[in-house]
């Protein structure tokens, strides 16, 4: 029998206290499109590229707050410009000063405190 594997992430779903406001925040600040209201509209389409999919130990400090069970990582082409845009909107962003073999990283949180990592892959 032929082995079938997934071809990518088709959605990322999470609970929010105010889903409409949260969706709008991600659209405004990170450029994700809102989920279409009908099947005649196209959903947000991301560029092809590497994606890390990994479980972490329950007691990891990598996400920051130990009550957070997930963290999303978005690929960006120009980390410095993205950070400047976010900061100009009053969003606190921490840029990791180290340049890793796989690129550069920055951290921020959405309005409900969920951790977001931005990654500029190395060319």
Considering the chains and any ligands shown, give keywords for the structure:
123 residues; alpha+beta; four-stranded mixed β-sheet; globular
Explain what this protein looks like in three dimensions.
The chain is α+β, with helices and mostly antiparallel strands. Helices cover 18% and strands 16% of the residues. It is built from 2 helices and 4 strands, in the order αβαβββ. The chain has helices at 19-30, 79-88; strands at 72-75, 94-95, 103-109, 115-121. It has a 4-stranded mixed sheet with strand order 1-4-3-2, with no helix packed on it. It starts with 18 loop residues before the first helix and ends with a strand. The mean pLDDT is 92.
In a nutshell, what does this entry contain?
With 123 residues, the chain is an alpha+beta fold. 18% of the residues lie in helices and 16% in strands. The N and C termini lie far apart (38 Å).
Task: Provide the spatial order of strands within the biggest beta sheet.
Answer: 1-4-3-2
State the end-to-end CA separation.
Answer: 38 Å
The percentage of residues in β strands lies in 15-25%
H and E string:
HEHEEE
Structural class: alpha+beta
Give the tally of β-strands: 4
Low-confidence stretches: none
Task: Report mean pLDDT, rounded to a whole number.
Answer: 92
**Biggest sheet overview:** 4 strands, mixed
Rg estimate, integer Å: 16 Å
> Percent range for helical residues?
10-25%
Number of helices: 2
Shape: globular
